[in-house]
Specification:
BirA Bifunctional Protein, domain 2; OB fold (Dihydrolipoamide Acetyltransferase, E2P); 22 strands
Amino acid sequence: MTLLGSLRTHGAGTLRPEHVGQDVVLAGWVARRRDHGGVVFCDLRDASGIVQIVADPSVSDALRAAHQVRSEYVVRVHGTVRRRPEGNENPQLATGEVEVAARAMTILSAAATPPFPIEDDADTDEILRLEHRYLDLRRPRVVSAIRTRARINSCIRRVMEAHGFIEVETPMLTKSTPEGARDFLVPSRLREGAFYALPQSPQIFKQLLMVAGLERYYQIVRCFRDEDLRADRQPEFTQLDVEASFVTEEDLFGLIERLFAELWLQIYGLQLPTPFPRVTYDEAMRRYGSDKPDTRYGLELVDLDATFTGTEVGVFRRALDAGGSVIGLCLPGGGTVSRRELDDLVDFARRRQGGLAWLIVDESGGLRSPLRKFMSDAEVEGLCKTMEAGPGDAVFLAADEARKAQELLGLVRVELARRHGLAPSGGADFLWVVEPPMFEWSVDEGRWSPVHHPFTMPNEQYIQALERDPGAVTAHAFDLVLNGVELGTGSLRIHDPDLQARVFRLLGISQQEAEERFDFLLRGLSYGAPPHGGIGLGLDRIVMLMTGSASLRDVIAFPKTQTGADPMAGAPSPVDPAQLADLGLMLRPTPPTP
C-alpha cells in the first residue's frame, strides 16, 4: 500500500523481515500499550495495518514519550526494524515476525478515552458505535469491509468500461414519479409550493439516455426511498444502474454474469461458474415458496392435492373446495424436533397469518400428529410416498390458496434452515428468476398495479390480449438472487409509446395523470426510442454478502439506524423557523397529549 505524506517513510502494516536493519519513520494511532517493567510495547496502527513498537531504557526520550501515550493517541516514531525474539512472533499479524525499536517518539495528537474498545470482538451496543462511527471505522473488520467496497467499485468500473459502457450522472433533484415507495421531498425556495424529489432510481433518466443514443450507460448511484426499514434496507442506498440499447435478456444475463465472475476472481481469487442457473417465477414459488430462493439446501415444497382429493380433514377439505391447495415440506431427521419447537413453528406461521400442521413419521412408518385421527390409512401412505418421508422425518403442511400456502411454507423453509444450520456458510449460489407476473391486483386500491414498474415490457404472446387477462401476463423481467438474497431486478423496457399508453390505462392511470407524472418520458419515446433494457443491482447488499457482514450498516461508511436516524450527526433534526419561512412552509402544531 502506498501511503502519501512526508511525515513517514513506511506504512506500519507493510514491514516484513526483508526490512530488518532499515531505519523507518512511522505515524499512526496507538492501538494498544503495554508497560513491562520499564520496557513499553505499543501496537501502532495505520491504514496499512499494525506493527509492534518497542521503547526500552537504552533510549530515554523514546521511553519517556511511550510512558505518556495512551490508547488512540496519534504518534510519530523514528526507529529501526528488527526481528522479534525467537518465540515472541505473532502469527496473527502480517508484521508478526518483526518489530520497530524506537529511537524517538513524538505525540502528534492526544486522545480522550474511547467510549468502547477499538477491537473487532468488543461487545458494544450498536447505537453507541454509530454515535462514534469515526471510532468504529478504526476497527479492522469494519474498515476492511469499506476497503473491499472500494475494490468492488473499482472492479465494476473496469468491467463496464471494457464492455463499452460510459458512466453518466443523473440528477439528484428531480420530479416526484412514485415507484412503489414514498419519495423524499425537497421544497424549492425559488418556487414556493413546489418540490423536488430525491430519486428512488434513475429509471426514467436512463431510458431517456437510450433515446438520446448513448446506447450503453452505467452509474454507481445513490437512491432514496422513504419506507419502513429492515436490517437489509436503508433510506439512502447505492446501486449499480445499467441500461443498454439493442439488447435481449440474454445479452444482459451475459454481461452481469461476466461482471460477477470478475468480482469473484479479483476479490476471492476464485473462478465463478457461469452461466447462472435460471428458474421461472412460477417454478420458484412452486418449489421453494419464494421468488428469491436460497438453493444451497433442499427442502423443496410438494403439492399434495392428489393425496387429499377425498379427504375428511376439515382444514384440507375447505381449502380444496375453495380452489386452493395442500402443500407439504419434509424435514429429514426432523422427528427429533421437540414438541416445544413444533408449537413454536405453528406460532411462527400464525404470526404470518397462516396455519401450519405438523406430522412426525415414527419408526414403523406411521404418523404422530394431532391430525392423524382424521386421516385415512391411504392418505398416510400417500403422504409418505409423495413426500418421500421416512422414519424419523418431520412433515409440515399448509392448506390455503395455492400462492398463500406456498409463501407460508417458503417462510417456514427458511426458518427451518436457520434453526437447523442447513445453509452452508459462504458459497455463491446465484440464480436468475425469470418471467414474473407483470401485474398484481391491489385489493386496497381496487386496481392492477405493476409488480416491477410500469415501464416493463410484457412478453410478446400477451401483448395482443393484454387487457383481457392482466393476471396471466408475464414480463420480460428478471431478478438476480444470491444465497436467498435478491441483489437486483432488471427488465426489457417498453419503447413503443402506444404500448406504454395501454399499460398506463390498464393500471388506472389516466392520460392526464400519465402526462403529469411521466410527460418527459412519453415525449422522449415519441421521438424514436430503441429497444432497450437494463438492471439495478443493490451495491450495499453485494458488499454485505461478499464480506460476510451481518447487516448493510456494516458496509456503509455512515449508515442510518433501523429507524432512519443518524446517531452521530443527530439527523433528522428540527430546523430554524427562518429556514422554513424562506421555503414558505409551516409546521402543524403538535396536538396536546390527552
